Amino acid sequence: MGEVLDPGSGADSGGDFPFVGRERELGLLLAAVGRPPAVILIEGEGGIGKSRLVREAGKVLAADSRPVLVGQCQPLREPLPYGPVVDALRKAGPWLPAGDLPPATGALAPLLPDLADRLPEPPPRVPDTLTERQRILQGVRSLLGAVGHVVLVIEDLHWVDTATRELLLLLARDLPEGLSLLLTYRPEDLPPRTPVLGSAYRRLPGGSGTTIRLARLVEKDIRKLAASALGKRATPRLEDVLYTRSEGLPLVVEEDLITLSEQGGRPGPRDARALERLEVPAGLREAVTERLERLSPAATSVVDTAAVLAVPATEELLVRLAGLEPAGGAAALTEVLRASVLREGPTGWYGFRHHLAQQVAYQHIPGPDRTRLHRRAVEALRDRSPVPLVQIAHHTLAAGDRDAWYERAEAAVDHAMELGDTGTAGELIRQILAQSHLPGDLRSRAALALARIAVDGVDYSTNARILRRLLADPELPVVTCGEIRLSLGIQMINHGEDRGGFAELERAVEELVERPERQARAMIAMVVNEWDDQAPAWVDRAEEVLRDSSDEGAKAAVRATRLTALAFAGVPGVWEQLDRLPRHSDDLEVLRQTSRALYNTTDCGITLGHDDRARALLVETREVAKRSGSLHLEAHCRVESLRLELHAGHWSGLEERFSALCAEYPDLTFAASERDFLLALLANAHGRRASALDRYETAAASAEHSPDMSRTLRAAAGVGTVRLAQDLPREAWAAASRAISLLQGTGVWVRATGLVPVAVEAALACGDRAAAEEITDAARRGTAGLDAPGAHAELAFARGLLLRGTDPAGAADHFADARRRWREIGRPYETAHAAERLGRSLAAIPHREPAVERLTEAYDAYVRLGATADAARCRRALEEHGPTGPARRGRRGYGDRLSPREREVVDLLSRGATNQDMAEALFLSPRTVEQHVARALKKLRTTRRTIRDHLPPDPPPAGQDGPSR
After folding, report:
1. Residue 606 · residue 591 · CB < 8 Å
2. Bond preceding residue 79 cis, omega within 30 of 0
3. Torsion of CA 782, 788, 790, 795, to 10 degrees
4. Do residues 292 and 364 make contact, with C-beta atoms less than 8 angstroms apart?
5. How far is CA 215 from CA 22, 25, 189, 429, in A?
6. Which of 443, 417, 444 shows the shortest CA–CA distance to 432?
7. How far, in Å, CA of 109 to CA of 118, rounded?
8. Which residues on neighbouring strands pair with residue 43, listed in sequence order?
9. pLDDT per position as a tens digit, 537-593
């Protein structure tokens, strides 16, 4: 009888089948890889063809001499820090440049012994996990950067350990220029509601890359696959059955075709009927089982051994565990390979073609035989060097010896931690904690180890869930709960902006009495609770607890906290104290506390109005944080950098950059809060009052739980500003007065939140001059003698508001003082506001020429910033107070060019303003706005929807075609 398969077809001997049905996905993959840096995600169920798609792309890339480095996640692996990534990097040798590699790559030398002669000397090993992780990350980035245009593939990410996942997350956030990171995974096997790289990962807006979701093959693809494999001998009936049985899953089709190959003979109605009788969707199970049942007893022993081991193994180990002689074992292994049950890997190790097939084979083994093989595996693996402790622990538990498993699992955890593989350690610890009854203090030790791993992670939501779950365990000792609660409280405050963290810290103080150094850490973390006027006293308590301690890191933490508290209080001379903190130290904890103090005072500098100093501190913070391994500070520093850009008037593209940062760090509440303030300010400056109000109210709602009181004060100031612009002074006063009461209760007048001027203006507009004077006087007393440039500028502005109705000359002096102060600080928007108020006050004296100069200065500043609504208001003032008096009737003809008013309308339209927004911003009636909109759209030959694509060139400066006369 003739052969079933055409000679050379992909179905014989388990080789690759023809590549069908994925042409579009291959094109998407190659296109994304061709635009590095990029992150490409390939997701799909088991057996759908993810690895095959990667292999096909690899062939194309290899033809173009593009390096492709592949690493594989395994369901059961021995400790190796960042194992899948390291496996991939081991293959990078042929593509490394001939010259010296960057020094940072030396950190990889212990992990890449085959490349050690090509790598620089590794840095001295340090016990600090964060520092080691930072070194490895920099080493990986530098090595991949040295290779150039390279594709890093990590397969089966659903099995990834935590440490490797976080390394890939950090790498994805900051890809080397020529890197394409390609990740495959099964979404159904990911933790519930968790993205592939953890809850901290979102694709960056505007970043290159794609997500390719593989669907099952359609009927025509199955027909093409069968025809390619069987040639003309494939019958339509057989193709129909193949499609029905497989439901489009390629792996099932391939297994059926291999089964037909082994049976021999020409496919016909009988084959179709036989296939049809097998259950669906259990087709894969039946296909693998049928093949297993045709094996000899010796070959079956080899397959059973491979299924129990669950990871690729050498011939020697398979034959030994199967209980066969070498010669007989080699023959049995050959039989298994020819039957396409196992396949040989590139390094001479043997495993199943697919994890699903391994599961089927494992379930096919009778229970007593499985237990016997697991016990035999433990004995055989003990003789290995190095001893595979994780595998031994797995086989011990599978064999039912729970008491021995506790000991072996903990030994595997210790070994993984020694190697720095916190991912493997974390998975084992979770298995230990999942047991209902643990001996001795094992539960406490495991909980503490897992808490340390969680705190060092970069995924706040996941880590917080872990810590809360640990605290719910009633069997944990009190001091262990205190350690975990300390970690949780700090994470809640620093990452979640959740004031509830202080309650956790206060409980931790009570629970950590037996550990004074850790108790002091909880105490100093309480100092930043601005809602508690007794918070500063915690520093004194911490110093008392540490009086006899030799822990320099804990003492450095107290010093950093006290310095931070002094800086936020505006105490003069604090910056000189900051300069004396160590920037270099062999004690990483001391360095970490320096980086914390530098960051806190950066934030303080922005709040107080020391913008130039804050910029310099930001540079230092990043440098020291990198040396100390304080990875979490990088995200916070980037937020502060964007805040400084906003204050400096660099508004172009700022919204997009903030959105990108929030997408990159979705769990960083601080970033989302600052974005709300940014969007609110821009919306108000663009005349979109409703949107601005909504943003400020959102910020106010989120600030209710924030440990940073400044957010509440800034949100109230924002709401008041919008309400004043809407000519709703009572609503403005309602928002501002509540915040003023809070300010009076806490006394933090030194912070430049914008609240004092808004509250004074709202009180005056409501006729409550006494309240306005009381606020101004309280602000004067609260800032006297303190180092608070921004607060002093706001106080000068508020004093000008108090005098503008009764003493225009006095008001002008105060507004001039505010203008000077804001200019020295370097905030053009606030400077323009002061200049505008100064111009209006001078016009009332009357000092017409100086008034026009200041109003023109303000107008030009608003135009440069893009503050359309402010520019329109200032333009109106110029028309009223220009050198020729109010504007004469009649309109200058502009022909097909936009008039200044139409330019304002177009700018507001492009920013999403409604007609009502424009009417309020431009002081026009809705009907007049409609006419301006219609004329502008007609001149530009566009519509509201496409206005952004037809924006005219920037307007000329004032005096050339603007409001000056």
Report:
1. no
2. no
3. 30
4. yes
5. 10, 10, 16, 36
6. 443
7. 9
8. 185, 213
9. 898 899 899 988 888 888 888 898 899 888 888 999 899 999 999 988 888 888 888
- Token pair, residue 947, equals 């206005």
Q: Which two tokens stand for residue 470?
A: 């640990």
Q: At what angle do helices 868-881 and 669-685 cross, to 10 degrees?
A: 30
> DSSP E strands: which ranges in 148-277?
150-155, 179-185, 208-213
Confidence of residue 706 (pLDDT cuts 50, 70, 90): confident
How far apart are the C-alpha atoms of 29 and 41, rounded to whole Å? 9
- Of the candidates 707, 695, 696, which has an alpha carbon nearest to the alpha carbon of residue 670? 707
Is the CB of residue 832 less than 8 Å from the CB of residue 850?
A: no
Q: Which two tokens stand for residue 454?
A: 């969680």
- Helix, coil or strand: residue 113: helix
**From the CB of residue 13, how many other CB atoms can be counted at a distance below 10 Å?**
13
CA distance between the termini of the chain: 102
Strands (E), 341-440: 342-344, 350-352
> What count of Cα atoms within 13 Å lies in the side-chain half-sphere of residue 776?
24
In this prediction, residue 14 carries a pLDDT of 40
Closest CA to 663 of 690, 628, 644, 638: 638
3-state secondary structure (DSSP) of residue 935? helix
- In angstroms, the Cα distances linking 735 to 692, 708, 762, 802 are 15, 18, 10, 20
State both tokens at 392. 């031994």
The pLDDT assigned to 796 comes to: 97
* The pLDDT value given to residue 951: 67
What's the pLDDT at 770?
95
Distance CA 191, CA 213 (A): 18
pLDDT tens digit sequence for 390-442: 888 889 988 888 888 888 888 888 888 777 777 788 788 888 887 777 776 88
Per residue in 592-610, is it b (16+ CB within 10 Å) or e — as a string? bbbbbbbbbbbbbbbbbbb
Report d(CA 352, CA 3) in Å as an integer.
26
Among residues 31, 98, 84, 130, the alpha carbon closest in space to that of 634 is found at: 130
Among 451-460, 491-500, 583-592, 828-837, top mean pLDDT goes to: 828-837
What is the Cα–Cα distance from 95 to 283, expressed in whole angstroms?
Answer: 43
Residue-wise burial string across 643-657, b where 16 or more C-beta atoms lie within 10 A, e elsewhere: bbbbbbbebeebeeb
Nearest Cα neighbor of 259 from 233, 298, 293 is 293
Q: What separation in angstroms does the CA of 759 have from each of 791, 828, 948?
A: 14, 22, 37
